[in-house]
């Protein structure tokens, strides 16, 4: 199932492909949206040090929807925070759109796992969605148009004046997605965004992600611990091992589009893939 | 994506209705609260009045006399207000408000800085803990020696005593803001000033308000205490004067004035809090 990209765990390090690359230019395939280059991270030092992720190498091309799965505590959030520029990795570097991350990269939005903490309870839905663009150079009507369109895209038209705490968990997470959309990101990071909503709401939100991916031409990186979800949503699944997390396998997902909650999940290819991912995770990174 | 919203629309409508002020449900609530407040008070006053009429005592004048005397102290004369009103009552209120404002501002600024940086929190906290465990009233002699017996000394003394409550609460409120909320500001590249005023301070505002509330009580207390020594006017000064001249009625009247002042401050803070923190109350009700 290992694909032919040069950037799998077993494959050559991305830097190996271009050893004479000029300083300051990104390693890996030219035009890649994200390049993760020999990234390791250790929390703390001395006795309490925790080696969370180890020598991760992969790249994501524009408009790909890549899911990252791994056992709980593997270091998925750690990886995503380094991608977001919220955490400087102890070793290696992340490149977004050809630029090395020194802080939060431009044109990136994030949907957090904890929707109840990521929405501002003193702002209405509409002002929460407008929050990231409120300081931008856009005119007021332009901002309003962006907010309206984003709320419409997530099916929350008519809820503009509500407050986050007046909405269900699934609706709150849709507000968070609308907020990310209104920002018009090229890269969207999602950290277990549906972990705390009920199963039915979750399916709706998964299909929402698929529809906005098609509509807005974004690159999406999606962290989940749900194996089915990782396969259902993605063009590629990156499987992480138990900590210190290494990349176990980089799996290409070629399922019929558009995906459908019922038929896709019945597809023998889907069933085969999910079984494969599950086996990888359960073995904790040993070959299967 | 279709099931949950409907169920919740109804719930949120209810919350919204509760959020709108002036609705019958809420009006009744206010009346009930006022009833709980005034009825026991009225009973106490009536009992006191009866007791002091049956068995008069120079130490406990009847409440009606106390109130009448207070009105006489503050109102009347040539204008609406007496000189005492301006010289003593307003002077105390002014000192209190000035000290409160300075102390609250200082407390919010330092508390925010402490809350935002773990480093500064760790270095400053022992100092804060040490200084604030000295009863503020005990520092008055030092303030007098350093700053003299004027109004500025009193205001700074009040500000000093008040600032601890605001500082501690602000630091704890800001320090306990969830990481996700702070990440939100960084991820969307919100400017530092907006991060401070639109994320950090609103998120910490319930705690800050709790501090401001305790501080308001302390401000009145410290204002009065500061007027016990080296003062030539103010409610505290009048209390000491009345004590020296054995004017018990005046003493009681000034105490009544302070009680009314305290209630008034509470009322104003309630009103501000209801406006500014309605989201906080309502979002908690839902859970
Ligand atoms: N700030 C931190 N300091 C120390 N250890 C941390 C910190 N954040 C996460 N960890 C540890 O790193 C490991 C990976 O965490 P995380 O990336 O959140 O895993 P995941 O998202 O895959 O569940 C966990 O064992 C966690 O305890
Ligand atoms: Mg996580």
Automatic annotation (TrEMBL), chain A:
This is ABC transporter ATP-binding protein. Residues 34-267 form the ABC transporter domain. It comes from the Bacteria. GO terms for molecular function: ATP binding; ATP hydrolysis activity. InterPro entries: AAA+_ATPase (IPR003593), ABC_transporter-like_ATP-bd (IPR003439), ABC_transporter-like_CS (IPR017871), ABC_transporter_ATP-bind (IPR050166), P-loop_NTPase (IPR027417). Residues 1-31 are annotated as: Disordered. Keywords: ATP-binding, Nucleotide-binding, Transport. PANTHER family: ALIPHATIC SULFONATES IMPORT ATP-BINDING PROTEIN SSUB, TAURINE IMPORT ATP-BINDING PROTEIN-RELATED. Coiled coil: none annotated. PROSITE patterns: ABC_TRANSPORTER_1, ABC_TRANSPORTER_2.
Automatic annotation (TrEMBL), chain B:
Residues 85-273 form the ABC transmembrane type-1 domain. The chain crosses the membrane at residues 30-51, 97-117, 129-149, 155-175, 220-240, 252-269. InterPro entries: MetI-like, MetI-like_sf. GO terms for biological process: transmembrane transport. Residues 1-23 are annotated as: Disordered. It is a multi-pass membrane protein. It holds the Pfam family BPD_transp_1. It is found in: Cell membrane. Keywords: Cell membrane, Membrane, Transmembrane, Transmembrane helix, Transport. PROSITE patterns: ABC_TM1. GO terms for cellular component: plasma membrane. Residues 7-19 have a biased composition (Basic and acidic residues). Its main location: membrane. It comes from the Bacteria. Belongs to the binding-protein-dependent transport system permease family. This is ABC transporter permease.
């Amino acid at each position: 199932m290992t694909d032919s990209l040069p950037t799998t765990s077993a494959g050559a390090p991305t830097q190996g492909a271009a050893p004479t690359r000029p300083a300051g230019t990104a390693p890996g395939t030219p035009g890649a949206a994200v390049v993760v280059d020999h990234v390791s991270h250790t929390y703390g030092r001395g006795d309490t040090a925790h080696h969370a992720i180890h020598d991760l190498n992969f790249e994501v091309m524009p408009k790909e929807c890549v899911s990252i799965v791994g056992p709980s505590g593997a270091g998925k959030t750690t990886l995503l925070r380094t991608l977001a520029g919220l955490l400087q990795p102890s070793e290696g570097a992340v490149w977004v759109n050809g630029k090395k991350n020194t802080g939060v990269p431009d044109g990136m939005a994030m949907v957090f796992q904890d929707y109840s903490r990521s929405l501002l309870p003193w702002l209405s839905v509409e002002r929460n969605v407008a929050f990231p663009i409120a300081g931008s150079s856009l005119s007021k009507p332009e901002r309003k148009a962006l907010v309206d369109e984003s709320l419409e895209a997530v099916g929350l038209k008519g809820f503009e004046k509500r407050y986050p705490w007046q909405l269900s968990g699934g609706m709150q997470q849709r507000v968070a997605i609308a907020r990310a959309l209104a920002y018009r990101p090229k890269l969207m990071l999602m950290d277990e965004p549906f972990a705390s909503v009920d199963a039915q709401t979750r399916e709706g939100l998964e299909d929402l992600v698929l529809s906005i991916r098609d509509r807005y031409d974004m690159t999406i990186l999606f962290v989940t611990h749900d194996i089915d979800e990782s396969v259902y949503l993605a063009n590629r699944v990156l499987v992480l091992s138990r900590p210190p997390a290494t990349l176990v396998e980089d799996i290409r997902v070629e399922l019929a589009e558009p995906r459908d909650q019922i038929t896709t999940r019945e597809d023998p290819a889907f069933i085969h893939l999910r079984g494969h991912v599950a086996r990888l995770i359960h073995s904790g990174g040993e070959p299967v | 994506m279709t099931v949950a919203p409907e169920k919740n629309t109804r719930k949120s409508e209810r919350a919204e209705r509760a959020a709108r002020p002036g609705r019958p449900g809420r009006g009744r609530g206010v009346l009930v609260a006022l009833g709980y407040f005034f009825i026991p008070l009225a009973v106490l006053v009536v009992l006191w009045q009866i007791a002091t009429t049956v068995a008069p005592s120079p130490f406990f004048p009847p409440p009606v006399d106390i109130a009448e005397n207070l009105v006489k102290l503050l109102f009347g004369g040539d204008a609406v207000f007496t000189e005492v009103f301006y010289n003593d009552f307003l002077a105390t209120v002014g000192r209190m408000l000035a000290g409160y404002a300075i102390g609250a501002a200082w407390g919010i600024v330092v508390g925010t800085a402490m809350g935002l940086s773990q480093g500064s929190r760790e270095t400053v906290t022992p100092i804060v803990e040490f200084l604030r465990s000295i009863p503020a009233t005990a520092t008055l002699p030092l303030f007098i020696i350093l700053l003299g017996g004027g109004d500025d000394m009193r205001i700074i003394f009040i500000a000093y005593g008040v600032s601890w409550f605001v500082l501690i609460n602000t630091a704890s409120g800001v320090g306990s803001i969830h990481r996700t909320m702070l990440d939100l500001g960084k991820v969307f590249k919100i400017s530092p000033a907006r991060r401070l005023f639109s994320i950090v301070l609103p998120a910490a505002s319930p705690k800050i308000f709790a501090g401001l509330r305790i501080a308001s009580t302390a401000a009145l207390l410290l204002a009065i205490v500061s007027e016990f020594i080296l003062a030539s006017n103010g409610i505290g000064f009048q209390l000491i004067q009345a004590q020296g001249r054995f004017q018990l009625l005046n003493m009681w009247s000034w105490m009544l004035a302070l009680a009314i002042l305290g209630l008034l401050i509470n009322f104003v803070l309630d009103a501000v809090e209801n406006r500014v923190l309605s989201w906080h109350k309502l979002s908690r009700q839902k859970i």
